[in-house]
Amino acid sequence: EDIAGLAAFEAILAEDSRIEPRDWMPEAYRKTLVRQISQHAHSEIIGMQPEANWISRAPSLKRKAILMAKVQDEAGHGLYLYSAAETLGTPRTKLTEDLIAGKARYSSIFNYPTRSWADVGAIGWLVDGAAICNQVPLCRASYGPYGRAMVRICKEESFHQRQGFEILLELSQGTPAQKQMAQDAVNRWYAPALMMFGPPDDDSPNSKQSMAWNIKRFSNDELRQRFVGMMVEQVKVLGLTLPDDQIRFDEETGKWQHGSLDWNEFKEVLAGRGACNSQRLERRREAHQDGAWVREAAAAYALREQRVEVA
Ligand code: ACO
């Protein structure tokens, strides 16, 4: 092991400063980052599907334009994150191959179906809300390229959340049937959104080390509880309810408590047996095949430009 490198690495962490791509880092730190960043990138890319499902059926031209822009933002997030992962030495082609081979993880949440227009609102409000809650602390992650990518991503996610909130608010203030549609979407997305934060702390093998490395700043349960506290207030403004009658603020611990979650369902989804896992991967494979000619054309163009420069 590189003793001077390790000392420098530890000194950077001790002063809560940043590790950059050319700095020496332990292999396990590099591996953890590639694992988390690539999982995150894949989530952004697969996450385009459930919402894209509603682009052609958005209720107005304005809603359609907003949703298209939002789905494109998610693609952009995926690209920043793949670039951040590449600075650690793993090429994007390899990450994509792992994803389409079904060997890589992406967030559990994107394996749930979008059944109504209100689901687009619930995704913006709950799913992007949970993403912000999880990702704002990641802006301070010790690995420079990851933390910097997070800053811009979080700004865009804030717009996304407001967009979702506004869809739900309009439905909730609409006809009784529209309000019911909004409530139904919130009922279905609430628990899966809480599971986005990962397994409970005592069942989270990576948390301790990731926190020691200043990658994660808070534990899965801490962030989940913080999120519940935010949603409890926002749902009142929406005029809807959360499907959880056990939520309470525990004066003793100063934390929000939520009802129990079905961690068996979470495990099933992670094992590839969620409602839409196979459909999501199939669609991603098709898109990759359909894009082959674009990649070939871009590579041929780059090669020609290079030759022109040399000549
Ligand atoms: N969906 C799928 N897999 C998950 C989820 C989830 N919601 N939560 C945890 N896991 C996986 C972990 O990746 C890990 O598996 P691995 O070791 O094969 O990678 C395993 O479950 C155990 O979990 P933890 O030990 O708690 O893992 P970790 O410390 O990485 O924490 C967390 C998980 C909180 C999701 C973390 O990786 C993280 O903050 N990632 C960045 C945010 C992110 O990926 N967001 C994507 C969804 S939001 C969006 O993009 C719109």
How is this structure best described in words?
66% of the residues lie in helices and 2% in strands. It has 13 helices and 2 strands, in the order H-H-H-H-H-H-H-H-H-H-E-E-H-H-H. Helix 6 (117-135) packs antiparallel against helix 7 (144-172), helix 6 runs parallel beside helix 8 and helix 6 crosses helix 10. The chain is globular.
- The total of helices stands at 13
How far apart, in Å, are the first and last alpha carbons?
A: 45 Å
Strand content: under 5%
Structural class: mainly alpha
Seen as an oligomer or otherwise, the chain set is single chain
Cross-sheet strand order for the largest sheet:
1-2
Classify the helix fraction into a percent range: 55-70%
For the report, how would you describe the main beta sheet? 2 strands, antiparallel
Q: Can you write the helix and strand succession as a string? A: HHHHHHHHHHEEHHH
Low-confidence runs of at least 5 consecutive residues: none
Roughly what is the average pLDDT, rounded to an integer?
97
Task: Compute the number of strand runs.
Answer: 2
Over all CA atoms, what is the radius of gyration? 21 Å
How would the global form be characterised?
Answer: globular
In this entry the ligands are: acetyl coenzyme *A
GO molecular function, one term: phenylacetyl-CoA 1,2-epoxidase activity
Protein name: Phenylacetate-CoA oxygenase
Organism: Psychromicrobium lacuslunae
InterPro entries: Aromatic_CoA_ox/epox, Ferritin-like, Ferritin-like_SF, PaaA, PaaA_PaaC
